[in-house]
Amino acid sequence: MQASTCVVKGGIGFGAQNRTKVLKGFGEFGKPSLGLGMTERTACSVLRLSSTPMKDTLTSARLGVNGVFRSSVKPRSVKAQASDDLENVDSLVPQSKSSGTVLPYVGVACLGAILFGYHLGVVNGALEYLSKDLGISENTVLQGWIVSTLLAGATVGSFTGGALADKFGRTRTFQLDVIPLAIGAFLCATAQSVQTMIIGRLLAGIGIGVTSAIVPLYISEISPTEIRGALGSVNQLFICIGILAALVAGLPLAGNPLWWRTMFGIAIVPSILLALGMAFSPESPRWLFQQGKIPEAEKSIKTLFGKERVAEVMQDLRAAGQGSVEPEAGWFDLFSSRYWKVVSVGAALFLFQQLAGINAVVYYSTSVFRSAGIASDVAASALVGAANVFGTAVASSLMDSQGRKSLLITSFSGMATSMLLLSLSFTWKVLAPYSGTLAVLGTVLYVLSFSLGAGPVPALLLPEIFASRIRAKAVALSLGMHWISNFVIGLYFLSFVNKFGISSVYLGFATVCLLGVLYIAGNVVETKGRSLEEIERALNPAI
């Protein structure tokens, strides 16, 4: 994966060279499955932007920050404030209704998330037909290159996105990113050779790698504190919408084998809309302030939050400290003693996300559903997608009330339980009569648990916990780890299955999920109800 069938996280599938192998007891897999991720990579949210909470007066719960770390004699990793400390607030100061407008610009940014999901999912239905058209239907190696090149490009793009966002700003980076996205889609749609198709997929991969970094970054920096969690999880919704759109776009293939070219070409449309939309979208006020462009920052704040909150937000930005006087952070600064602890948390969250087995569950979902009598691949994808939609909808509604950390712990706990159920359904003879039903139940519960936290939270949490001067590069580094681990897992997963058996592999995933619970409990900070500047001051007391 980066995750993901609507399936999510925006994720990615396994290396295609392994997709056509026949595994004992699981039948033949001729089509690539999508993984859950992300960016995660990997979940959908049915957050209705027109709902009452979004329309009504926004009130801000300004929580005092008494420090994010517990004091400790021994040096420890980044730790969350105790829950009683988080709740120790004398009063909540209500805000007047904001005259600013955030939702349209979040929607424009999420065109990048749609493209992310679409490029991940489009090859799933098209591979069989494009392989025949390009004369490689018997060459699984070249088919694997067509699928996996996207991952390689995404890795490059995720690292590049942070540097571009720091240098040119968030909105201009979106516009620059349209170049590889649109050209990649065009080359894929018009390819007459495998080489052209691979180049197109590489460019599209670079494009989605950049979007995987800057979409959550931009949304977190332009969103009001009180609804930042809900808006941040919308990113996952649109990734899922993109994947589902790719699934729907493939329906005419059976009657028109050349339709695959149109499928790839469709991606050009949202790319152009993204470039046009960003031309009218405000730049991140935090980036503008970082660059010393104070009047432009105030104008952006007025557009996003309303003129009545300009002074308040500017005060927060100034209190955050040295962004305007410190030199721009370099890549090596991420590994300094000042930042490494919090950066390592970001990388670890995406590593746990990938090692928790989301791709394995999605990869085997078709076989599992067939064992339970569900023969339709579309029906299987729809069932998994429905679980993601429902889970992320619940997560969106709880993100700003229950908090990111609690959702992560609940998510990984549920994933561990589901993996254990899946493992037992394949090995315990006493459960043999119910193995098909239990396998389906375990799969749906796993995807549901994933979408509650492991899918949407990491991409939301990372921009919140990173200091402004390292935010773009640190997010890019963490997402780079996501894509690299995604690629490695896709490369070696089937080898482990063939050597140890699927039940043992699932048991290993359950162990990883439990380790994830312990790591999150001890190292992840809770950020709900705090502005980015409050979080930055708490995590960087020297500022």
TrEMBL record:
This is Major facilitator superfamily (MFS) profile domain-containing protein. Belongs to the major facilitator superfamily. Sugar transporter (TC 2.A.1.1) family. The chain crosses the membrane at residues 102-122, 142-164, 176-192, 198-219, 231-252, 258-280, 342-366, 378-399, 406-426, 438-462, 474-494, 500-521. GO terms for cellular component: membrane. Keywords: Membrane, Transmembrane, Transmembrane helix, Transport. It is found in: Membrane. InterPro entries: MFS_dom, MFS_sugar_transport-like, MFS_Sugar_Transporters, MFS_trans_sf, Sugar/inositol_transpt, Sugar_transporter_CS. SUPFAM superfamilies: MFS general substrate transporter. It comes from Juglans regia. It is a multi-pass membrane protein. One of its GO terms (molecular function) is transmembrane transporter activity. It comes from the Eukaryota. The keyword Nucleus does not apply. Residues 105-528 form the Major facilitator superfamily (MFS) profile domain. Its main location: membrane.
